[in-house]
Amino acid sequence: MPKNSKVVKRELDDEVIESVKDLLSNEDSSDDAFKKSELMVDDQEEKDVDVEEGSDVEDERPAWNSKLQYILAQVGFSVGLGNVWRFPYLCQKNGGGAYLVPYLVLLLIIGIPLFFLELAVGQRIRRGSIGVWNYISPKLGGIGFASCVVCFFVALYYNVIIGWSLFYFSQSFQHPLPWDQCPLVKNTSHTFVEPECEKSSATTYYWYREALNISGSLSESGGLNWKMTVCLLAAWVMVCLAMIKGIQSSGKIMYFSSLFPYVVLLCFLIRGLLLNGAVDGIRHMFTPKLEIMLEPKVWREAATQVFFALGLGFGGVIAFSSYNKRDNNCHFDAVLVSFINFFTSVLATLVVFAVLGFKANIINEKCVIQNSEKILKLLKIGNLSQDMIPHHINFSSITAEDYNLVYDIIRKVKEEEFGSLGLKSCQIEDELNKAVQGTGLAFIAFTEAMTHFPASPFWSVMFFLMLVNLGLGSMFGTIEGIITPIVDTFKVRKEILTVICCSVAFFIGLIFVQRSGNYFVTMFDDYSATLPLLIVVILENIAVTRIYGIDKFMEDLKDMLGFSPSQYYYYMWKYVSPLVLLCLLVASIVQMGLSPPGYNAWIEYTATEEFHSYPTWGMIVCISLMVLAILPVPIVFMVRRCNLIDDSSGSLASVSYKRGRIIKEPVNLEGDNTSLIHGKSPSEVPSPNFGKNIYRKQTGSPTLDTAPNGRYGIGYLMADMPDMPESDL
């Protein structure tokens, strides 16, 4: 190219020319700090470029109003319905108090380290799950999309449970409670108890027939249950209104939704301990069965509970953490929230078994009375001799201990014909050994116990309001795990996306409020999250320790926290946690293969549950749920691996302004011959001469692109003049 400046000017006359002074004039002229900015350009392949270093990542990115609000949000997300109706069941089933040992061990091995890892990467990169893993390795960007898909699947049915709780909450404002007694049926001649209720119980009948109006199988849709449809709509409206402004709106609600369940649990614990039989329930709960603790199944179920109790892999933990300041002590947060979660589970277990002990005592008293009447009849007709009965026994006011004494005597004397007498042992332990979990605990066993409470409507209102708040806290984190990554990645308006997401979820969720909807809830609960989330967290661990680099990550933690984390985390992340997660994944696959895929259907004429296998189309749905949840991982990997999408925004670099300096946003530099800038650090780049620097706009680029933080992110490249000497640049 000729070196004559006039020739250069003529050749560039057609181009849109802007000097650096013109470019800087787009910013606030009074911003002295900005005028001191320096241009930082580096190679895309150098992953050490920190878009956050030395400045706030996004000046206008929402932030928590206080540390307490953030902790309550994380606690609300991790402490959910599973702490109330899953942990007590596992504790009872797997050795009582002995179950706490494997749970605590696994909390220390996989729970706290992986929770700390997710908190740290969210706070370090300050993006949702898609942005975080795309930043670490674009080929692993599918991890974030997989988390979003799983969050969506879980949100679909989890909000249905909140709808069920809202229904029971609305029905609790009456005395007596509607599930207190079996309904009476009148015909032309006489009145009788509803047969389905008489064969089961009042609370069981109310749950299956009045609330769900359940069909006999998965294939029998039965149409929409309008009561539950209204409750589901109310639940989604609540979630949408709470989330529409992001953490600015949901954060304030956390003060109530996260703290109120603890108030209710403490009230229930105090009330429960004053009930007859509560001590029996708690004693039964924490009596350790050490032999059970050695079974592999116990450790597998403890690991699964730890994994899901903390919400690992959902993306909600990362999303909430991304709104933190970069120097926040996320290690303290990880330990604090993990142990709050654990002690909440223990508190809920105390409450559940205090109440179930009271319920077992009532059932046992009824059993004693009924069987004492049988003994009196047998004495009258001569099948039993009066000499067998100790003289101090009074059948009109017999105690459980006296009945068991008489029972043992009769069993020894009438050993051969004892079975034909039809007597039961009436042991409280037998009733407490009937393990109940999930909806069976919340909507049947617990509701039955509350009917015997003084002022039962009050306790019912409190209990179901607690369930609603526990569910909403988890839903906020789940929806945040969908909204935040998409807003960060695709720059859409959060309000519009929230409304669209909740609306779509409601209409899809109508399958759960059919008469057969409960069976679909079971299907989604069993197949939509377990395996995909395990795979997601394994890939997260690999991405940080192997792709990003465990040593580099430890340095980042030291920079953020102000101190070096314990080497314990280094070895957990690099060796122990991946191995334990792989074992858990294999064990879950084996367990899924050994367990016949199916569901418990409610049979109306027998008033009992009966196991049904999934039909062929049901199996296809189950497999599709797992495949769709994990499919984004290989798709994104192949797209990035084969360069099917060109992400470059220019041949040199894309820059955006951040508080007094321009921070590089990585783009593809391959093929760029501008060796004067390519690959050099800021100190190596020649200081610009404002009078001679010539810039040309990128082809097809708008004049000003609005960056997600509200400032301008403008992509410019140097004019393609390979022969121009350095002095002219």
Automatic annotation (TrEMBL):
Reactions catalysed: L-cysteine(in) + Na(+)(in) = L-cysteine(out) + Na(+)(out); L-proline(in) + Na(+)(in) = L-proline(out) + Na(+)(out); L-threonine(in) + Na(+)(in) = L-threonine(out) + Na(+)(out); L-glutamine(in) + Na(+)(in) = L-glutamine(out) + Na(+)(out)
Subcellular location: Membrane
GO molecular function: metal ion binding; proline:sodium symporter activity
Amino-acid positions noted as binding Na(+) in the UniProt annotation, renumbered to this chain: 76, 79, 83, 341, 470, 474
GO CC list: plasma membrane
Biased composition (Acidic residues): 40-57
Signal peptide start and end residues: none
Region (Disordered): 27-57, 674-707
GO BP annotation list: L-leucine transport; neurotransmitter transport
Membrane topology of the entry: Multi-pass membrane protein
Comp. bias (Polar residues): 696-706
Residue spans crossing the bilayer: 70-88, 100-121, 142-169, 226-247, 259-282, 302-323, 335-356, 458-483, 495-513, 533-550, 571-594, 614-639
Keywords from the named record: Glycoprotein, Ion transport, Membrane, Metal-binding, Neurotransmitter transport, Phosphoprotein, Sodium, Sodium transport, Symport, Transmembrane, Transmembrane helix, Transport
Family according to the record: Belongs to the sodium:neurotransmitter symporter (SNF) (TC 2.A.22) family. SLC6A15 subfamily.
Name of the protein described by the UniProt record: Transporter
Annotated organism of origin: Tauraco erythrolophus
